[in-house]
Amino acid sequence: MRRSLGEHVFDASNAVFLILLSLVTLYPFFYVLIASLSDPAWIMQVRGLIWYPKGFNLEAYRLVFLNPSISTGYLNTLLYVVLGTALNILMTSFGAYALSRQNVMWKNQVMFLIVFTMFFNGGLIPTYLLIHDLGMVNTRWALIIPTAMSAYNLIIMRTSFLSVPVSLEESAKLDGANDFTVLFRVILPLSMPVVAVMILFYGVAHWNSWFSALIYLRTRELYPLQLILREILITSSTESMMTSVGGADKTPIGETIKYATIIVATGPILLLYPFLQKYFVKGVMIGSIKG
User: Fold this and answer.
1) Element (H, E) at 47
2) Which of 36, 95, 133, 223 has its CA 20 to 30 A from that of 255?
3) Are 209 and 224 in contact (CB under 8 A)?
């Protein structure tokens, strides 16, 4: 079927619009990358858009990686992401499996209570008092246990589990499988796209989390990377990284340190996303459409 002139114009307009939208979205990150690799004095003077690094300089990255707070924050963030995401997937899988089975009593009422928490919660002060009374303030568990399960992600995974034929579960139980065997050997292997989406959702949330650490943590050795990044960007606390820099150069190198820290903090999660992207749309669609 031949396409009309209007359809070609419409497709071309969409392509131009999406290209411009992509440039607007990507340029801020590109600017930060170029600024982190450029001469600090030039960055302080330049105004407007920049498209290439001038006076290629890796001194900011050297100072960032020599900073013990950055390395400690990296290790803490990796620990929070791995432990937190593993607990999130486990708890969400258990909840989704229980609420997707046909013979579970009061599952609709329990689902209503879970959805209710998406609209109403106790607030910051009651939550802090609860964490304090549980003895988790200034501990790593304060960043892992309270966020063990997301109601929104539970709904997506539950809907995905509902799409698995009941006959598979029945045949597995006829062979002597219990609920744990059905979940880990039948349901989850058939739901890997939605599991990948859950890993992406939970992993990015843990990686970007800083507010909970700001509220519950007191010891700097427990700080995640994002809280260290916040200190550098908002309070301009770059003095500890500039001990080897001359006094006249401290201000410009301090600016490029901020840019380099942003790249170091966001780079890993940006590199991970392409490997999970192919599961993203498929997993969300499986979790949102039942049939």
Assistant:
1) none
2) 223
3) yes
- CATH, range 59-288: 1.10.3720.10
Cβ(62)–Cβ(171) below 8 Å = no
Higher pLDDT, 243 or 149: 149
Dihedral through CA 60, CA 61, CA 67, CA 71, nearest 10? Answer: 160
pLDDT tens for residues 17-75?
A: 999 998 888 888 888 888 778 777 767 777 777 787 777 777 778 877 777 888 888 88
Residue type, 230: R
**Of 73, 224, 219, nearest in space to 144 by CA:** 224
Judge contact between 257 and 64, C-beta under 8 A.
yes
User: CB-based burial of residue 203 (10 Å sphere; 0-12 exposed, 13-18 middle, 19+ buried)?
Assistant: buried
Contacts 24+ apart (CB under 8 A), 164-167: 164/190, 164/191, 166/102
Q: How far apart, in whole angstroms, are the C-alpha atoms of residue 241 and residue 5? A: 60
Sequence-separated (6 or more) residues with CB below 8 Å from residue 125: none
pTM of the entire predicted model: 0.76
Given the structure tokens 């002060």, which residue do they identify? Answer: 125
Q: Coil, strand or helix: which one is 1?
A: coil
Under a CB-based contact definition with an 8 Å cutoff, are residues 197 and 284 in contact? yes
